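Input:
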Amino acid sequence: MRVRTAVLISGRGSNLSALIEASRTADYPADIVLVISNNENARGLETASASGIPTRVISHKAYVSREAFDRAIDAALREAEIALVCEAGFMRIHSEWFVKHWEGRLLNIHPSLLPSFPGIHVHEQVLRAGVKISGCTVHFVVHELDSGPIISQAAVAVLPGDTPETLAARVLIEEHKIYPEALRCVAEGRARLENGLAIFI
Ligand code: GRF
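Output:
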């Protein structure tokens, strides 16, 4: 049986599209069966609906605390019998409770070579620092922002004349390759989190 997987989004949803596309290929071990957005206007919701995938909008604004919001997400995940969760452009920081509860079953993608350049405005940070290589990272989520054990990375050259937009576009192409591969590894049990470390078989 394929691993029931949910994707958490807040916006465009291009990584969501890449995951859905991968999940439609023969022998892919994960099935995207639920998409949750905290933002009702997220474009990714339309992508999910067009693919016949159930969606839920759970607005953080309706909850008094981070944990209360996370508990609503958790309830939706449990109701759909979700085993793995992929964050893809999900712009909320989780409570410690949620991260602990989903430890080892919660993945995120970040558009830099972590641990360099966590946080937001990533490509601006990269260009300001003048590094020549950037890239993207899929990692297990831990409580510290953008710093969990790494599952997969891809490098992208920073080119002379790059703007945040041109660099983001080239990094995104790699994101769409490594996220489905990382999810495959975790869903097949070839990558897992053990004592705070990513273990590969
Ligand atoms: C991606 O660059 C991802 O790495 C970052 O947010 C962006 C989301 O893009 N966390 P999309 O919504 O998947 O198109």
